Structure formats: C-alpha cells, structure tokens
User: Fold these one by one.
Assistant:
Number 1:
Amino acid sequence: MPPVNPWAILVAALSTFLIGGLWYSPLLFGRRWQVAAGLSDERARSGNPARIFGGSFLLALVMAANLGAFLAGPPDVTWGMTAGALAGAGWVAAALGVTYLFERRPLALFLINAGYQIVAFVVMGAILGAWK
C-alpha cells in the first residue's frame, strides 16, 4: 500500500460531515430526503447520536483510507478528484442503486443519497490527492 498522510485521511473523513451537514440540511435536500426516506421529524431526531455519528466517522475514515490507498504516485488534485468521482459514481452510487431497486426505494432517495456520496468522494479525493 502506498504511504498516505494520516492527517489527509482525517481531514478527508471530516469533510464528509461538513458536506453531509449542508447536503441534508433544510437549505438543500433535508426535507426532500426525510420525505423520501419516510422519516417523521420525531423519528429523524431519535436514535443514539454517539452511535450514529461515531459509527459514521469510523466508516468515513475507512472510506478515506481506502481511497487514499488507490491514489498512488505524486500528489495530484485532478487525479484525486477523478478517482473520487469514479469511486463515488461507479462503486458507491451503483451499489446503492442495486440495493434501492431491490428494496423498491424511491428514485428521489437514491438521487439524494447517491449525489451526496459522489460529491463527498470527489472532495475526499481532492484532499487526498493534494495532501499525500
């Protein structure tokens, strides 16, 4: 595995929270996502925040480390963003699409969630590509 800057992995993982906070806020897709996911306000606020955010952060670290491992060679923002787009659209969004088809989830939910993943992976790729 090529060496990857642990700070770049940490920042890339944190970037998913910044993007997600905006993406799923009322400013962008929060209400549409909630309706498409069938979540009431009460259900959306329920759950264990430490488990949800802690688990999400650990998974974001795994995603960032995995993407960083694919970015061999000298630092390159363009290649990082390209690899992020390919991973986000070609692996993550495609896998979500297969699952959503079998689960018969709404197209709107797929577009919101897959769009977030693609954008998050492009940004992670930019960070990792620039800051190896």
Number 2:
Amino acid sequence: MGSRPRRVQPATGLSFDLGKRVLSWGKGYAWNPVGFVQRSKDATDPNLPREGYWMADATYVRSFSPDRLGLGLVQTVGLTLIAIPANGSVNQDFGPKSDSSVAGKLYLLVKDTDLDLMVLSGGARSLRYGADFSRNLGSRMEVHGEIARIAQSERPVLDSQQQPVVIAGASTSYLLGLRYITEGDATILCEFYHNGEGFAAAEERAFFTLAHLAVETGDPALIERANRIAAAYRRPSALRNYVNLKVSQNDALGIVYFTPSLTAQANASDRSLLILPELLYKGITNLELRLRLQQNVGPRETEFGEKTASTRLEFRMRYYF
C-alpha cells in the first residue's frame, strides 16, 4: 500500500501532501463518475479498502462570515491541485499512457449545499471534467448527484461480421441518489447510474453469443477473438444503466453495532439482477465480522446471468491494528 503520506501545514487552511494517497472524489455510494484520481469502487462492495496513487497535492480552504461574498451565499471555498506522475516506476496502472497528469477540484459550500467542480488534464488519462453536489432535504433525507464528461473513451465491440472494432468518442456519465433515514434508524439508499463508457445491451449480447459459440465449437480463431475483448465486458458495471437500492438497520434486534442490510442492484440495460443480504457486526474492538450472500439473477447473455457462480456465500473477519 506504500508509505504514509507526508503533510505540511504552513498556515491555517493551507496544506501540502506528498505520498501514496487514497482520495475520494464524488458523492455517490456505489459509483463515482467524477472519481478521476482514484481507483474504481466495486459496486457490489463499495466500502472495501482501495489502494491509492502516488501524488503531490496542495489544498487551501477558507470559510467566510455571513456578511461576506453575497450576504452569506458562499460559506466555504476550497481549492485542491494535484500532480500525479505515471511512468514505469510509479502509478503504472493510472492510465493507458505513461505521462503525468494534473487535476484540480474547487469546493463550494453554497447555502448548505456541497458543490464540487473537478478537472483532470490530458496525460495518462484523457481530459475529463465534472461536478457533484449533495444537499440535506430536512433532517432525514439527503440528495446527491454527479456528472462527468470524458473527452475521449473507447470500447471494443463486434461488427456485423463478428469482428472486433473499437468505437471511440466523447462520453458523459452521471449519477443521482437519495438517502433517507427513518425514525427507527434504518437507512434507505437508492441510486441511478448511467455509464457513458458502457456497452449497450445489444453489444453485450453479441459478445456473449461469440463467447458461447467459441466454447461450444472449440474453434481457436473464435476463442482468440473472444479473449481479445473479454476483459472489457468482464469489468464491473460494464453496461450503461444501473439502479442500486440498499436498506440497512443500525443496532438491529437491540444488538449494538449489529447492522443487517439488503442490497438489490439491477442492470437496467439487460434486466439482470444482483441480490445481496449481509450481516455486519462491529461490537468487538478492532474486529469486524461480516456474513454475506450474493445471488446473481438473470437469463443467458446478461451481465449477472453470465457470472461464473449464481450463488456465493462468504464470511469475512477483519482485524485492525
């Protein structure tokens, strides 16, 4: 995971960091379209720790009194600038090219609404920019969203002759979510995610048709053709539209630190579904116990219907030190 980053704070609100860091850009729970400077989440387990990238960044934050900047319209301003090297020695997997990138984020707290504007320069990754927001609608409800524009993205598809071709162009991804906490301390989270870099359902079906044909016939040419593009279709959330619904209950059954939850994640493009009940217990110092069952539901030639196993049961014990 790398060494702990070094921080210098020469003045109030100003800090400089150098080292391997895990940043968290975006307000979404399962997905972050504006997560330009971080590794993607596993949408089926968004809280899993992720490895960071080596970077140098500077952050300045300033709050304003109510009589400044439009009678209190803007309450807080923050600016973060980041340099991310990518070469044979560090951050080799940051992007398809070995080149340094520069990113920036402007944070605004405007009338109790969190706003972020982000940009990542061309470099190891193509130019991309976006925005997110989060706002509380009363004491129990919160709404959030993100939108990102990528100047150049590519996806491999099959043409009418079942030959791989690459479709390139700009793309837009976005997310809209709602979180509600009931009087009984249950949390209901619902998010819709559109992946502008994702595949259409017809493109997915064409790939699975080729893959099944390759396996059934054993034709080396078909197997090689399917393997050439398989990684793109196997990546998480590879299609265009998803809905994630999670319901969790804190201190269930009167047991402190016991949180059962149920997640349903639907691929709205091919209508396949993942159902994930989970039991989580954190009542022992520095120890986390988790039992989860993953059920993949869907017909042949759909994302969740084509998973290696339709059912997976796992128990995890994590100790912190």
Number 3:
Amino acid sequence: MIVGHGIDLQDMGAIAELIVKKPAIISKILRPKELTVFEHLPEARRLEHLAGRWSAKEAFAKAYGTGIVKGCGFQDLEILADERGRPIFTKHPFEGKVHVSISHSGSFAQASVILEGGEHGH
C-alpha cells in the first residue's frame, strides 16, 4: 500500500550559486559515503549529482510528511547506487519500502519518492 508520495524540483543554477557562497553546503546535504561518490565523479557531473540527491531527499521528506526536520534531515537520509547504478535509499527513518526516481533535464533535477508500507504506514 502506498503511504506517501513526494516530488521535488531543484534548479541547478541556484545550487551552483549557493555552493560558491557556502561550499560547506555539500557536506550538509551528502553523508560521508555519498560525499565519497561525489568526489570521485568528473567535475562536469558533480552539480547534477548533488542536485539529484538534494531533490530526492526533499521528495522523501515530503512523502514522509515531515519536510526536512530533525530525524528526517539531509544527514538522516542516504542515497547510493545499486549494482545496476539505480539510486536507492540506504538510510532513512521509514519502516517500509522506498522507491526513488531521479531525473535531470536542462538546468533542473527532479525526484519522485514513493513510500510503500503496511496498513498503518510507518
């Protein structure tokens, strides 16, 4: 049973400007394993990757019904890739199954998250 659905859209240009002003934002959005992946990407791919993860974490928080708050903040959520390269949440507060899709087009990154659980949700 679907117990939550969230979507989010991030403007990569705005994120690029934020990184220039506050470079530490990267480590506030990404957990250590995510940061390692980010640092090993070609420079041209990093902004797209960060924006996608940011968008997916925001979408999760919306699906979870809390928004980004303590207990469901950027550092409480981790997205890595499975063996085929598909993004998957490897850390989150939800007790059920999490489905995530991340897309990029032009200067935007978008994510959709569906939370699937039992009768009573989480």
Number 4:
Amino acid sequence: MDLRILGWNDHFADHWKINAGRDLRPGRVVEEQKEAYRVAGEDGEMQAEVIGRLRYEALDRSAFPAVGDWVAMHTLPAEGKALIHEILPRRTKLSRKVAGERAAEQILVTNVDVAFVVMSLNADFNVRRLERYLGVIRESGAEPVVLLSKADLCSDTGKATADLVAVAPGINSHILSARTGEGMAALAPYIEVGRTVVLLGSSGVGKSTIINRLLGSDAQKTLEIRSGDERGRHATTYRRLFLMPSGGVLIDTPGMRELQLWDADRGLDDVFEDLAILGSKCRFRDCQHQTEPGCAVLEAIADGTLEPGRIDNFKKLKREQQFLERRRDAAAQAEQKKLWKRRHRALRHHYKSQR
C-alpha cells in the first residue's frame, strides 16, 4: 500500500528519520476498539497491539494510539499482526473531556486536515452546540466545515443559514442531502489524495449515510431516526478510517451526546473573536459585560447587532474551561504519584531479583 494515499507526508517522514536502522515500519491506525487496533501500512491492513515502553509509561488512555495516528511498528505479515512501539508526533489532535466526573482527556482522532461538523436541518441544528464544536476544532489545528444535512426533510433552510453565518462568519458551510445526492458534489475538493477528513456530530444526523454516498457503497450501517422526537440512534459504534476511491481519507465517528471541552482556550478565543473586538471598545479594560456603563458588548446587544445568547455561551464555555483546568492540575499530580510508585515497585523488584 502506498503510504501517501494514507496521508503520509514530509512531516511524518522527517520524524521517521530517528527510526533508521531499526526493524520498524510506519503504519496508520485505521480502527481502535478498547486497545484492540487495526493498522494499515506497506504490508496491508492487520491487527495490532501496543507493547513495550509505550504501554508501560502511559499515564492514561490519551498516551495510547488513536484513529489517525501514525505509528512505528514491527510487522508479522505471516500472522497478519503488528506490534506498536511508538506514536509519531501528531500534526493535529481532536480531544474532549471523558464523560463523567473524571478530569481526563479522550482523543477522538488525530492528524486530521478538515473536520466536517454535521448537523441535520430537520431537528438537530443548534448554534450553541455549533460554537462548542468550532472551539474544539479550532484548538486542534484542523479546518472546520459545517454540513447542514437532510435538506430533503427541510422546506426552509434560510433561517438555519442565517444563524450559521451569524455565529461562524468566514467558515465554509454546505447544505446537502446524502439520500438524494443534493449538494454532495461540493465536498469533493476537501477530500484529496494525502488529506484526512473526519465527520463529527450527534447521532442520527446522517454521517454514515454521507460516508456511504462518498464511498459509493454501504460500508457503514445506517439507522432511521426515532419518529417520536426525531432523535438519532447510534449506527456507528467506533471510529473507523476509510480510503476514498478517488483518493483521500475519511474518518467516521460515533454520534456524540456531549462534547465537553478539553484544553480549548485558544480555540474559543478564535471562534468568539468578534466579542474580543467589541470588548476592546468598552470604556473599562476589565469590563465583564454585565452592567458596566460604556460596555460595547451590551450596546451591541441593545441595538440588535449581537445575539444575547452568544455572549452567554462564551461565558459559559470559559467557566467550563477554567473549572476543568483546576481539576486537571489536581488529577495530573495524582497520576504522577501513581507513576512514581509503579516505577519504584518495579525497581525494588529488579534489585531483589539480582540478589
């Protein structure tokens, strides 16, 4: 298999130089299910597992490979198996906080060039959720593109389009229906040889149907939305990388019920740049945009040029990020203690075995 079709480029080639002379080959993680991996490389696609120092020194799940990663591996073609030794430095990384109370990172995908945020026009479109997605994607380094799907189920797309432009000026968006094929041709320029595209969104918005339409086959299982409330059902249960017939790479992901932030400060500042520009015009430098006189943000809300929900959501996301950072600091200290205890036990065991 030609590595360039999988997305191999100069970035990874430069980092691969340190592996010269070692009995290792580069490969890309195409599937991951609870530490069971499939990788693709010059010897084709095969099962893989993590071994050695990479497994031993991992503090948490974020240190393990994710779909999209390039890895250094020892291949056993006769057995259809590979042993993963290292992860090559990532160009981009899409992460969220794990569900629940634990302050830990869950890596969704890596080394992605473009992230399609899929929202269905029949019931799923939500500008507040979109702002959250855009903050995470901007932080990752990938290019966000919004896909408004299921156009065949919506008689008036004007309001959704206007709302999108208001919260995401300058970001490319497309209205489409994977079922009828409407608007699908507009996606071709994003999916080129050497580029990786991921589809993100809630359950039932049509990600798997879009994948199948682009692949020209029923590679992904699809389910009808529930008729009672038009809520989606999970069709995709794990992340999977697909090679496009015309070149390029697509990654499908399970529907996300929630997207909690993880290290997204810069991404949020980018998405809400208009608020920063307005804030620079406030009378007071430390204006909180609440009741202060001469507040440019409040004036913009009053004259209708700024939607109140936008500033409210910005404050909410910033509070969420600050709270998470405090919990991350405490969690990192606890994990470091666990690592040193584990190493100390291993060292004591080593000395005892030498006596």
